[in-house]
Each structure stands twice: as C-alpha cells, then as structure tokens.
Specification:
The complex is a heterodimer of chains A (610) and B (577). Chain A contains 23 helices and 18 strands. Chain A has a five-stranded parallel sheet with strand order 3-2-1-4-18, with helices on both faces. Chain A has a five-stranded parallel sheet with strand order 6-14-7-8-9. In chain A, strands 10, 11, 12 and 13 form a four-stranded antiparallel sheet that branches. Chain B has 577 residues and is an alpha/beta fold. Chain B folds into three domains: 2-92, Ubiquitin-like (UB roll) (Roll); 98-205, Alpha-Beta Plaits, CATH 3.30.70; 220-572, 3-Layer(aba) Sandwich (Fe-only Hydrogenase (Larger Subunit), Chain L, domain 3), CATH 3.40.950. A five-stranded mixed sheet of chain B has the order 2-1-5-3-4, sandwiched between helices. The model of chain B has no long low-confidence stretch (mean pLDDT 93). The chains are: A alpha/beta (610), B alpha/beta (577). The interface between A and B is medium-sized, with 25 and 30 residues.
C-alpha cells in the first residue's frame, strides 16, 4: 500500500460529471408552468441522493419529505400533511449539520410557503394549478410571441422575405431586433437539452440582411377613426403600424427632430446602423402613418386638445429623463448624463471627446453604450466606475467584454462620493470610496465600504449612466394615473378609467427592452381597435416548410462574429457581422421545431392571426 | 409527386401526404391509436412509429409527411418493438377490466393489444383514480383514459367549446374539464361527440338500462317506448344486423318481444313538431324580416344548451316548439293516457335516442313526461342482455295512435332534414297545396354550412340555412350578428351530420359511415306514401280529437317551451345552462 496515491480519473466519476452537465442544461431548458409540488419532489430526491447519510434530518428527513410530497401528488394528503411538510422542511434546515441538508430543507420550505395555493389545490381538489399550455418555449418567452420556429424554417430554405413577413406579423421591428434584441426567446430553448440554444437573433439578422422585398400586408378599408400616438419610438410606431393596417387614421406626435425614440437617441449606431433604422421606420410609415415631428404634448399641444380631436390615444413617451447620482459636484462643467450624450449623437452633433479622460458611472447596458461611444468620440481613456463587482453588472456580459476589448477600463467596487471641480468649474475627477462585496440582498451581492481611504479618479468628462426616468408630469396633471413616475395601465394597455386612452412601452414598464415596448404597442393596437368598435384580424398565411427527421447530433452554436476591436473602435459603423449562408443553414438546422415535435403538435404549433 | 419505398414497395404519392396515408393507399396498414384524421394528428401515443432508413430515431406515421427518397419499414424489429413498448406502457396505466367495460369489443386499445399479440405486460398496473359525478349524462372514467387527447380536440375544433383540456404537468398530465372545473360548471353541450370519438371506455353515457329493465318488470306500470328516426339508421351495426335487416319494423318487433307494452315512433311527433314549428315560423315571419334575425330550430338539445350558454341574448329566436321527444312525452301522458283511460302516473315512458343531450332534456322536464332515455348504444346493450336473438324476431308495425310517421318526419335524423320537412309543410300552409316532395333537396348533404333560398310563390321567398356541428353554428351566428348574412329560418344540429352521428349512436372504431346512415333515412322517406307531415293521419286525428289546431292553447301548453324562462330558472339554480 503506497503512502500517497496520484489522483487518477475514475471512469464512473467522469460519466457522472457529464450527467451533471446534461442536467444543468436540462434545468436551464425547463419549460415554464411546471407543477411546483412535482418539481420540489424531484429536487428533494436529488438532494437526498447527495446526502452523505451521516445525519438524521438529511438522511431520514428528506426521505420523509419525498413521501409526504408524493402523497400530495397522489391526492392522499390532507391540509395537516402540508403543515407537516412545512415543519419537517424547517426542521431539516435548522438541524442539519451541513449545507446539503440545510439547503434542501430550505428549498422545500420556500416552495411550500411561496406556492402554498398550488399545494392546497392538490390536496383539496386533487388538481394542479399548472398546465403545459405554452408549448413552444421561444414563442412563449418572446414578449411579442413571434413565430420563431416558423421563420427559422423559412431562413433555412432561403425564403428571407417570407421570414421577415412572418416576424412583422407580430413584431414590426425585425431589423431593429436583429441587431439589438435581448432575445429572451433563447433563454429556455429546448435545443439546450442537446447542446446550446439556437442563435435566434443571429438567424433573424440573416433574414433581414437577405430579405429584398418584404411586403406590406393588405390594409383594411378605412374606418374614419382617428388615433393619436404620442411618441415615435418602437412602442408608438408598432401601435401606429398595426392600427394603420386596420384602416384607422393614425398620427404620431414626436417631440424630437426624428422618429425612433431610444432606438435613435439611446442606442449608438455601431450597435444599430442609422440607415437600417431609417429603412425600418420608412417601411412602417408606408402603411400610411401621419407624423408630426418637433411637437411636444404639454408644451405645443395640450393633451386635452388631443383628446377632443381623436377617437383614441396611445401614450408611448418612453423613459427619456436622466437620473442624478445625488452627490456634490454634479453641476461641474464636463458632467453630463447618458441621455444627453446619446441624444446628441442621435441627432448627429456629438461633443468631441478627443484626447479626454472619460469616466462613466454605472454598470448597465446604457453605461456600456456610453463608454464605447466615448472611445469612438476620441477619448484618451474611459473608466467605467461601478460600485459592485463586474460580475454583478446588469449589462449583458458580451457588452462588458466588448467595451473592455475596445479599451475601456472597468473600475469595479468603487462607490462615487463626490465630483471634484477645478477652480474654473470644470470637472477634476471622481472621488470614490473603495468597496468590498458583501451579503446577497434581492439576489445580488451588495457592496459595503472597505476600510481604506477614498481615491480620486481624475477625468475631464464624467457621464452619469445610472438609469432613466419618465417625463409623465403633464399626463399626471391631466388625470392619468401615475405610480412612481410610471403611467399605470391595465394589462389591456388601457389607462385607468380614462376612456379611449391607452399607454405602453417604457413609460409604463419603466426602462426596459425594445421587444417589450414593441409587444405593448401591438397589445394596445388590438385593444384600441376593439375600443373603436372593430375586430380587425391581422392574418399571416405564409406556409411554413415541413420538418426534417434528421437525428439531432450535438453541434456547436454559430455565434455572430465582431469586427476587430482595433478597427471598430475608431468609427460608429456596425460592429457585428452576419452569418454566412452555410453557417445560417447549419444554425437553422439545429432548431428542434417545437411547433411540430412535442406539445406544439396539439394545437398546431402556431397562431396565424390575432 | 414524391417517390419513396415502404416495406420494399416502390411507391409514388402526392406531396404533402402523410406516411400513414401513403402506406394505406398502398395497402400497408400502420396501426394507430390516438390518431383522428384532421382533428388529432399529434403523435401522442407513439403507436404508429415506423423506421426510416438513415435515421436513428423512429418517426411517427400519422403526423409526418413523406419525403423524396425515404425508405420506410413499417414492421421492422425497431418499429415493432417501439410500438409494442408504447402499447405496454399505455396498458400499464389503463384499467383493463375489459370483460366489464362498456366498450368491450369496440375498443381500439383492446383491438391493438390483440393485434400486437400482447398477452402479458411487464409493468405494474397503476392507473389514475379521480371522482366524477355519475348522476350527469356524461361520465368520465379516469381509470381508463389513455390521454390520446381526441376528446380535447373534438370539443375544441368541431364544437368550439373546449370543455376538455390537458391539465397538470409532467407525469401527472391528464385530461379533465378545462381549468379543473366541474363539468356542470362549464359550457358542455352534452353533444357526446367526445364519447363517440373516445377510442376506449374513458367517456361514456350514464347507463340507464337498469332503470328501464326495472320498469319492464314492474307489473303496475304501462311501459311505452318511442324510437327516434336516426336510431333505425344505426342500431343494427351494434348487434350484427345487416343494414337491410335492421329495419324499423324489426326494431318494433324486438321492443315488443322484450316486454314494452306499446311501441311507438318518434317520427309521429316529429311530424307534430313540423305542424307546430312550421305554423310558428309563418306567424313569426314579419318579425324575422323586421329584426333581421332568423328563427332557429329547437329540436336538438345539444344546440339548445349551446345557444343558452354561448349566445343567451338569442334564446328568444328559438322556436318555442318542443323537440319530437318532448312532444311525444307530453302527448303520451295526456292524450294517450286519456285514450287508455289510465292516470298518467301509471305510464312509464321511455325514449330511444341517438343522443346524449336527450338524457339532459329529460331531467329538465319538470313534469317528467319522459321517464328514461336510452341511447342507441344502450338499446343494443339492452337487447343483448335480454338474450333476444333479433334475427328470430318478425317485423312488426308500430302501435297506434302514436305510431304512424311520414317521410318528412323520418329525415329529422339527418342534417337538413328538419328544414326540408318544415319547408314541405310551410309551403302547403302558404299555398294550400303540396309542393313536389323533393323540391327542397338543396338542403341535403353533409356540407357543414348550407344556404338555400326558395320561392313559395305569392311573393314569399324564404331564405334558409342549415348547419351541423357547433363550430359551424357559432360561425353562422357570428355572421348573423355582424349583419353579413340574413336568414329567415335556420336549422342547427349539434353533431356533425346530425342525429345519424349523434353522441348516443353506435360507435365504429374506424368512424361511422354517415353516408350509409343518411341513405337509410332518405330511402325511407322516398318509399313512404306519406311525405308531408301535415298528411300524417294520426297527427290530423290528434289535432281533431285533442289539440284542435297548431298553436292552439292546448298545443301551447303541451307542445311548447318558454326557453327564456327555463334559462333563467336554470341560472337561478346556479347551473351553466
């Protein structure tokens, strides 16, 4: 017997490692709407098999929890059983020796306390409150419910116009979303069970790049109804587009010089080229939308006058005001907000940052946009100052990586204390207090002061990017319900009890994603149509290609490549490349066609009208 | 055309053909279980799997289309074993107490188990057990459901009601009333189409055979029975009689032989319905033209439940005439009781109907005109259980005076029939002379939504529509409400094809031959000497001796309903309809 042995790979352990990996992917791809009792039962079983078996609460307690949960599922349990589950779970949490038992107890306890109604329904009526009525995960998770398997199949066959038309049936901004959608559709893609989610946005990009002649759907006969849309951003234009198709006369009021809202005044053109934005907007306007630029409701026209002139109104004013940090020196020359800076870029007259040292305060996607735009405006250096860890940033990881690749410097764990000024009133630098990561609150580790001295980070320009607000004051004064700045609506997008007034997009949700704003615009269009006494159907009749039966061999996901950082950082041209035909075909071929295989088969896998 | 090979056979089929269909056209049978053409092509049971060369995983034949160059093996080891495994798995969650099952002998699962040579299963048998209210006409047996989802689809697609849904998730997924409600709390029409499309015994009618047997044995009761028109088009299918053997007179003979005291024909009261409804239609014509809203037929109880739950504001547009079953019931316990000289309590009145909802119509009737309703299936079970050999029974005439029916009354059992019968008599009422009996045959046929317009002369042009299946009824009503169409008179039957395919009819695993059943009824109409309801001598006599004339006060009292009042009463009782 050797005194020590060299670690060697155990075959069984290696296999189990692979199985864990499979299971991780499986959990990521979990369908929505599963039964909490059933899931908890499975999870507790898993925890039980992880038990080392030493301690009573873990070894026996988890076993008993499984039995009790089974009895709930089988309809043998009583309300007393539920109490017993709660007590048992809590006891396991409190008295287990290590985290295996403790966390298992907590998991079961959280499940039964947070989902008690479902547990109770099982006991009282023998039913679950959940069902599998959301068959196609990507379609379900897309706020606009675009027929994703449908257009992927069309791209695969090279039918790009059809693909774009399928997207526009639910989402009038295919070009926009091809560039900048956050693609929540990919989050639970079933393909993840095999390898990785489909690159849905990438495929959409192929569709819009190759589409030559997308067609405007037929317009319904004119209704002689007039609708005003306040705000020419993605939500307002979506609503206006569909209402125009339905035969209503729509006028969009935009307070700025150009249409597009945050797409123009918030998103830098290296992420979304302006000519593509214009192309998108022009297509939508071809549905016959009237536009009034440079008109601000509340300043140039009273909301009440608008109400008299129109049969219905959609408010989609977005979230365009900036938020202040609230520290000394924010009035220094050279301090600006992200909104101000990006707006100037949007209108084509940005401030030059040539040779300047720039600090960006914030960790969201907008902060990254600002930082990367600063590089392009000639900044000598860009420091992104964030009070938490880089890993805690709300910006997408690829945005942070992109910024760093272009030379931005992430200064994590630094909390702004004050902005210091030069004698001439210009900004001298940002004084920050070093932070350390600390306990997790609301699922994010919160920072706390480190026991070291404050530091001054010198700069010539400081851009504050810590969120946007909504300019809802005028509407609030006119009797529209506003809660903490956001306009309040029902889920029909109708505003409180003000007849014929609807609202949606960022001004209702708070600053959110473009696809949510688009989706809200479509919801509003449907409900405004109904409010006006119509039931126009928006129909899509493109035949979707048949499925293929090829075995699904695990295969890598094609990612969109980027222009080289050293090239792209010098201009505002698009940074992301599209896929080659071959790549697109392979990526489309990875789609599992959940519209046909699985639960999608039951109700046909797609809705072709709304 | 697509070229492919199935089981070594080079074949060519149209593009878009399913593998199942392609095989079938070429004489190759691929077994199916959950599959229901055009309605349920969801590949849930995985019994129709085949092997496709070059593909590791099996492919289902029912919902996948042929592709150029495919080489398919329907009966390879891989396909056979996968198929058998799936059937064994289904069996492991099915309460296969076949001997006592209501569907013994007409069960797709039983048939496949036999075909696959399965004599034992390797798995524990454990099936779902859930309570159901067994007092309502529609019974769901959770222990037998195989989750094929056919009922879900039929209810949603054919009837546009969506009563059944897939509930729960994971291994607990099952079929139940949508949102886990009680059946009595949703808009079920009791059409029974879910039953006739259920491949196993998971859905069936409430069995009232024993109630009838007890009455037959009760010497204090006078048992009378009425037989609906469509029953004669199908009852033979369930007891091994050929269509030409299974005549209505044979049925009359059988019913006598098993002990009914008086055997009558609902066709008689169908003629009565025409007298009342036809007369009512003419009196309402001015109002119909003024409001732009048609009068709807009222003889289909599934349709009545539908309109009451889905379009309650239109209930006033229904004819107030009772259904033939209802009219018969009322007359049996009044007119006929008087003729017999017995108190009405002494009469036990049974009706044989191709219908599930008629069982509900009976319970609605507060004065219990009808004591028991048997579906055609229950009739066949009753016959079998009484050990009568139908072949030995001679044909017998129906009894008088509620036993004579015209050809017009017979065609009540098929879509378009009520309309045609009504038009024949309405024409007579307008012109005081008969039209050609076949003048209105444009309303015949199995198209789901038929329209026709007839010139009665004297400036009366009648525009009619005929729909069957409730999704078509919904479509028609929506058009009427939008003002897209205008009709004077609309016939609605809840079941596709009408009563010949009723929810109480004989079930055939491969679907029933509706054309053949329809031909039986039109054949009987054609050969009948009487083809106009107003010429039915027993109807004429009934009016002369008892009711005086159509829409008389007595007729109103006995033969008409107040739908709005009834609906309000039901709602007050907390019932859906």
């Amino acid at each position: 017997m050797s005194r020590l042995t060299v670690f060697t790979k155990d075959k069984q352990e290696s296999v189990k490692e692979l199985l864990y990996r499979d299971l991780e992917r499986r959990i990521i791809a979990s369908p929505t709407g599963l039964c909490p009792v059933d899931l908890t039962n499975s999870f507790v079983r898993l925890c039980l098999s992880q038990s080392c078996g030493k301690c009573t609460p873990c070894r026996i307690g988890l076993n008993k929890l499984v039995e009790l949960l089974e009895s709930v599922l089988d309809g043998r349990a009583t309300l007393e059983t539920l109490d017993l589950i709660k007590e048992t779970a809590r006891g396991i949490y409190l008295s287990s020796d290590c985290a295996i038992g403790q966390e298992a107890g907590k998991l079961a306890y959280d499940s039964i306390t947070e989902c008690y109604d479902d547990y109770k329904e099982h006991v009282v009526n023998g039913n679950c409150t959940c069902n599998s009525n959301k068959p196609v995960a990507c379609v379900n998770l897309c706020p606009a419910h675009v027929d994703i398997p449908g257009y992927i199949a069309l791209v695969k066959e090279g039918r790009y116009d059809d693909a774009v038309n399928v997207i526009r049936h639910m989402n009038p901004f295919p070009i926009t979303c091809a560039y900048i959608c956050e693609h929540p559709c990919e989050n639970r893609c079933k393909r993840t069970l095999i390898d990785a989610p489909i690159n849905i946005r990438g495929i959409k990009r192929v569709a819009i790049e190759k589409s030559k002649n997308p067609k405007l759907p037929p317009k319904a006969a004119t209704t002689n109804k007039k609708v005003a849309v306040i705000g020419g951003g993605p939500s307002g234009l979506s609503c206006a587009y569909y209402l125009s198709l339905m035969g209503h006369e729509v006028t969009v009021y935009e307070q700025r010089k150009q249409l597009g809202g945050m797409l123009r005044y918030g998103i830098p053109s290296y992420r979304f080229p302006r000519e593509r934005l214009d192309e998108e907007i022009n297509f939508l306007l071809s549905a016959g939308i009237k536009v009034e630029l440079n008109v601000s409701i509340g300043k140039d026209i009273e909301f009440s006058d608008l109400k008299k002139k129109f049969d219905a109104i959609y408010i989609a004013i977005g979230a365009h005001t900036d938020k202040k940090i609230g520290i000394d020196g924010e009035d220094a020359k050279g301090v600006m907000s992200a909104v101000e800076m990006l707006r100037a870029i949007g209108d084509g007259n940005p401030t030059s940052f040539e040779g300047k040292r720039v600090i960006v305060v914030g960790g969201g996607n907008v902060a990254m946009d600002v930082a990367r735009s600063s590089v392009r405006l000639g900044a000598k250096s860009v420091d992104i100052v964030y009070r938490r860890r880089k890993a805690d940033m709300t910006a997408l990881a690829e945005e942070v990586e992109g910024a760093e690749a272009e030379g931005c410097n992430v200064v994590e764990l630094m909390s702004p204390v004050a902005i210091e000024k030069n004698p001439d009133g210009t900004v001298k630098g940002l004084r920050v207090k070093p932070q350390m990561t600390s306990i997790i609150e609301s699922r994010r580790p919160s920072p706390k002061n480190k026991n070291t001295d404050e530091v001054l980070i010198p700069c010539d320009i400081l851009v504050v990017s810590i969120g946007q607000g909504i300019d809802s004051k005028h509407f609030e004064d006119k009797g529209i319900a506003v809660k903490r700045g956001n306009i309040s609506t029902f889920d029909s997008a109708a505003v409180g009890d003000m007849d014929g007034v609807f609202a949606g997009g960022d001004c209702v949700s708070g600053p959110a994603t473009v696809i949510r704003a688009i989706a809200a615009g479509r919801v509003a269009a449907a409900n405004i149509d109904e409010y006006l006494g119509f039931n126009h159907e928006i129909v899509q009749d493109i035949d979707i290609p048949e499925v293929s039966f090829d075995d699904k061999v695990p295969c890598g996901r094609v990612e969109l490549s980027m222009r080289k950082p050293q090239d792209r950082k010098n201009d505002f041209d698009a940074i992301e490349n599209t896929m080659s035909d071959e790549e697109a075909c392979q990526e489309c071929g990875r789609c599992l066609r959940c519209d046909h295989f699985g639960f999608g088969a039951i109700r046909g896998g797609r809705s072709t009208k709304w | 055309m697509v070229k492919l090979v199935i089981d070594g056979k080079n074949i060519q089929v149209k593009e878009g053909t399913s593998i199942l269909e392609a095989a079938k056209i070429n004489g190759i049978n691929i077994p199916t279980l959950c599959f229901l053409k055009d309605l349920n092509e969801i590949a849930a049971c995985r019994v129709c799997v085949v092997e496709v060369e070059g593909i590791e995983k099996c492919v289902t034949a029912c919902n996948n289309k042929v592709q150029e160059g495919m080489v398919i093996h329907t009966n390879s080891k891989k396909a056979r074993e996968a198929r058998k495994l799936n059937l064994e798995l289904i069996l492991s969650q099915h309460n296969f107490t076949c001997a006592t099952c209501i569907r013994n002998g007409i069960c797709k699962l039983q048939e496949l188990t036999k075909e696959f040579g399965i004599t034992d299963t390797p798995y524990n048998i454990k099936y779902e057990q859930k309570k159901w209210d067994n007092s309502i006409p529609l019974i769901r047996d959770f222990t037998k459901c195989i989750k094929c989802m056919r009922c879900v689809q039929v209810c949603e697609k054919v009837q546009s009601l969506g009563v059944w849904d897939i509930v729960n998730t994971g291994g607990k997924t099952t079929v139940n009333v949508r949102s886990n409600k009680k059946l009595t709390d949703v808009n079920c029409s009791y059409c029974g189409q879910c039953i006739v499309n259920c491949p196993v015994g998971a859905l069936h009618e409430r069995d009232d055979v024993k109630v009838v047997l007890d009455a037959l044995d009760n010497k204090d009761k006078i048992t009378i029975v009425q037989v609906a028109p469509a029953v004669r088009a199908a009852y033979g299918e369930g007891i091994g009689l050929k269509r030409e053997e299974a005549t209505e007179k044979k049925l009359a003979g059988i019913l006598k032989s098993i002990g009914f005291d008086h055997v009558f024909d609902t066709v008689f009261s169908a003629d009565m319905t025409i007298m009342e409804e036809g007369s009512e239609f003419l009196t309402r014509l001015d109002d119909i033209r003024k409001t732009g809203l048609p009068m709807f037929t009222s003889c289909c109880p599934g349709w009545l439940r539908f309109i009451k739950s889905e379009f309650p504001d239109l209930v006033g547009r229904l004819s107030s005439a009772k259904s033939p079953q209802g009219m018969f019931g009322a007359l049996a316990k009044s007119y006929y009781a008087e003729i017999l000289g017995v108190p009405e309590e002494k009469i036990f009145s049974v009706s044989i109907m191709p219908c599930l909802a008629k069982k509900d119509e009976e319970t609605l009737d507060n004065n219990h005109d009808i004591d028991a309703v048997l579906t055609t299936r229950e009739l066949d079970r009753l016959l079998v259980s009484t050990m009568v050999n139908p072949k030995d029974i001679p044909e017998t005439e129906f009894d008088s005076p509620l036993g004579v029916g015209t050809g017009a009354g017979v065609i009540f059992g098929v879509t378009g029939g009520v309309m045609e019968a009504a038009l024949r008599s309405a024409y007579f009422l307008v012109n005081k002379k008969n039209p050609d009996a076949d003048a209105f045959k444009d309303v015949r046929g199995l198209d789901g939504y038929k329209e026709a317009s007839f010139d009665f002369g004297n400036g009366v042009v009648v525009k009619v529509a005929v729909v069957h299946s409730l999704s078509n009824a919904r479509k028609l009503i929506n058009k009427v409400l939008k003002g897209e169409v205008k009709y004077d008179f609309v016939e609605v039957m809840a079941c596709p094809g009408g009563c010949i395919n009723g929810g109480g009819q004989i079930i055939n695993l491969e679907g029933s031959d509706l054309a053949a059943r329809s031909n039986v009824l039109y054949g009987l109409d054609k050969v009948n000497n009487l083809r106009f309801s107003h010429e039915n001598p027993e109807v004429i006599e009934c009016y002369k001796k008892y009711l005086k004339e159509p829409l008389s006060e007595k007729a109103h009292h006995l033969l008409h309903r107040d739908h709005i009042k009834e609906m309000k009463e039901q709602k007050a009782l907390g019932k859906q309809v």
